[in-house]
Amino acid sequence: MSTAPPAPAELPAEGTDGPAVLARMVANRHDDADWRNGRIFGLIFHPDDEELEELLADVSREYLAENALNPVRFPSLARMERETADMVAGLLHGTPGAGGLTSGGTESIFMSVLVARETARKKGIAEPVLVTAVTAHPAFAKACHLLDMRQIRVSVDEGYRLDVEAMRAAVGPDTAMVVASAPCYPYGVMDPVTEVAAIALEAGVLCHVDACLGGMMLPFWERLGEPVPPWDFRVEGVTSISADLHKYGYAFKGASVLLHRDVAQYRTQWWFDDGAWGGGLYGSPTAAGTRPAPPIAGAWAALRHLGEAGYVRQAAKVRDATRRLMAGVEAIDGLTITSTPDLCVFQFGSDVLDMDVVAEALADRGWFPNRQPGGLHLMVSPYHLKVADEFLVALAEAVEVARDGGTSDAAPAVYGAARPTGGSSS
Ligand SMILES: Cc1ncc(COP(=O)(O)O)c(C=O)c1O
Questions:
Q1: Which of 167, 212, 335, 423 has fewest C-beta within 10 Å?
Q2: CB of 104 sitting under 6 A from ligand 1
Q3: In b/e form, how buried is each residue of 264-295, taking b as 16+ CB within 10 angstroms?
């Protein structure tokens, strides 16, 4: 039986006092994912750090209204953006002053593709091409769509890593940039950055490393003594890197860093208008015009609050939780981990069980791993160390439901979705 769609919202004739608005807002959250108890494995990177959460709440209050569009009006924001980008550049062995913040991974990727297009056009390439693995994040396809570029997606090997020979064969005279993921989202494996960058060097094209997911984890993974294949600016030929602060940087949403190998390349990211429109000279390094202050200030605050030692401690928790989860999954008859992940993100599936049934039985128990076409996907946060065992008990039960022949009427897997959304706030 289908229910009638809710009436479209209308602006109320009269306003309502703040507490009542807030109460209604809170009531509207009844079907939101329970991230605080670690029940989801995507969208949120739960640091399990109450002091950090308080700090970020204070930061957003402090910078409630400021705008990073004009660095002259709020120089404190310009300084924090510079310092934040430079702190990350230091971690990634990059160049100070050669990058800045964006609103997230998708915008960092968009701007990196724009730089590639502009660089290629200067070389006389009329229709510049981007070459990525098939596992590259859809943000590259979106950027190509918006920037009217062609993307060639090359295959991956049996370990889900970019196939170097396929990339070499795909690179041609119109190639603007090649891309490697560190790691890719679906399988959590690193593409062979050294080989991809060597192809770029040989062809004289740019090489972007998408470390949106891994950029704020890999440096600390390395400090923990874990094996980390070369991926950052220490690799000759890597010309830009995206690294999200709103993922394993534990800042709140709206903060990513796009770093270039040198300042000259960073300048290509900037758009300048001459002022003929009547409003004055306009210069901007991002897709957005007005830029909210809290993500910039929050990213700066998170880096300062945690410091290197804090990030290493968080990385250790994530590593331990990942190990426990992987061992627990492998111990359940019928489940296999799809790849050998390099970090803390992985997919598991089954040749014998219907994973949609497993997902639904887990949902019935209040757990929401990400659903992918090949199985279930976990992106592990520090908090998950506390609940890994509980999740594994629920998973074992869910597998038994599937083994007993449960059925599913689940919709196709949706990226990052923990549960269906919809309805009205009334
Ligand atoms: C590897 C990778 N690249 C890019 C992105 C896009 O980041 P955002 O969702 O912040 O735009 C993601 C998001 O999960 C990602 O995992």
A1: 423
A2: yes
A3: ebbebbeeeeeeeeeeeeeeebbeeeebbbbb
Domains and CATH numbers, the chain: 34-51+308-396 (3.90.1150.10), 54-304 (3.40.640.10)
Give how far Cα 143 sits from Cα of 175, 181, 421, Å. Answer: 15, 16, 26
Residue 318's contacts (CB-CB under 8 Å, 6 or more residues apart) are 217, 248, 344, 380, 381, 382, 384, 385
Q: How far apart are the first and last CA of the chain?
A: 21
Which pLDDT tens digit goes with each residue over 324-346? 999 999 999 999 999 999 999 99
Query: pLDDT at residue 417 above 70?
Result: no
For ligand 1, the distance from its centroid to the CA atom of residue 23, given in whole angstroms, is 32
* Phi, psi angle pair for 308, to nearest 5°: -60, -45
Say if ligand 1 is within 6 A of residue 343 CB. no
The SS3 of residue 317 is helix
Measured from the Cα of 106, ligand 1's closest atom is 11
